[in-house]
Amino acid sequence: MTFGDIIYLLAITLELLFLPLLAIYIISITISWLYGAPYVATRKDELSELVEKAKKYLTKNAQFIELGCGDGRITRMVVRDYGMKGVGYDINPLLIVVARLLTRFQRLPQALFYKKNVLDVDLSQADIIYLYLLPPIILTMKNKLLNTVKKDALIISHAFKIPYLEKYLIEQADGVKFKTYYYNRSK
Ligand SMILES: C[S@@+](CC[C@H](N)C(=O)[O-])C[C@H]1O[C@@H](n2cnc3c(N)ncnc32)[C@H](O)[C@@H]1O
């Protein structure tokens, strides 16, 4: 076997491994798009400031829920830094696998991740809800966010306003690319 043959075999093997992974990735990203928002993570350098503004709500016994959690970075951060319980939901199974792997790696058993449509998530026990979703799905969630969430819960929406909660806006943060909006219906 010549050196050229070895290179050729190597290239074929890599291609056979790479193509299915690429296909899985493209399918999973399409699923995210179709259900309500593509996967775009909240910037890592903005996480602490976003969470800082919600500090007084982040107590040990509070329940944090992330709707459309992606790789789960925010949920893991509040669990790690504030010792609370956090649950992330995402429609994309690939992202849930990644979120669980990272969580196991960082040894954070209080952070849990489930594959679920945000429209089916029970929000009645949540004290803080974080979402970074597109306006159409935010509109679809109107009844849920207005009628099933505790009145004093903090709802944080990154990048997009929640129009039907406008009068409950208590704070906003200017990010590098997007603003973040904080709502509380008891204020
Ligand atoms: C813009 S990304 C935000 C990811 C993460 N929250 C962050 O801030 O890094 C939106 C996420 O919502 C998920 N998503 C979109 N529609 C959804 C739905 N109907 N139910 C659950 N997750 C959904 C996508 O898969 C994607 O991971």
Specify the structural class. alpha/beta
The CATH topology annotation reads as Rossmann fold
CATH superfamily: Vaccinia Virus protein VP39
Give every kind of bound small molecule, once each: S-adenosylmethionine
Order of helices and strands: HHEHEHEEHHEEE
CATH architecture label name? 3-Layer(aba) Sandwich
Radius of gyration: 19 Å
Order of neighbouring strands in the sheet with most strands: 3-2-1-4-5-7-6
Strand portion: 15-25%
Number of helices: 6
Q: How many discrete structural domains?
A: 1
Major sheet summary line: 7 strands, mixed
Helix content: 40-55%
Choose one word for the global shape. elongated
Q: What distance separates the N and C termini? A: 76 Å
Please give the number of β-strands.
Answer: 7
Poorly predicted regions = none
Let me know the average pLDDT: 92
CATH class: Alpha Beta
Please characterize this protein's 3D structure.
A 7-stranded mixed sheet has the order 3-2-1-4-5-7-6, with helices on one face. The chain is 41% helix and 20% strand. It has helices spanning 3-35, 44-52, 73-82, 93-105, 135-140, 142-147; strands at residues 63-67, 85-90, 111-115, 128-131, 154-158, 169-174, 179-184. It contains 6 helices and 7 strands; from the N terminus they run H-H-E-H-E-H-E-E-H-H-E-E-E. It has a single domain (44-184), classed as Vaccinia Virus protein VP39 (Rossmann fold, 3-Layer(aba) Sandwich), CATH 3.40.50. The protein is elongated, with a radius of gyration of 19 Å. Helix 2 (44-52) crosses helix 3. By secondary structure, the protein is α/β, with parallel strands linked by helices. Bound molecules: S-adenosylmethionine. S-adenosylmethionine (SAM) binds at residues 32, 35-37, 39-42, 66, 68-70, 73-74, 89-92, 95, 117-118, 132-133, 137. S-adenosylmethionine is lined by residues 32, 35-37, 39-42, 66, 68-70, 73-74, 89-92, 95, 117-118, 132-133, 137.
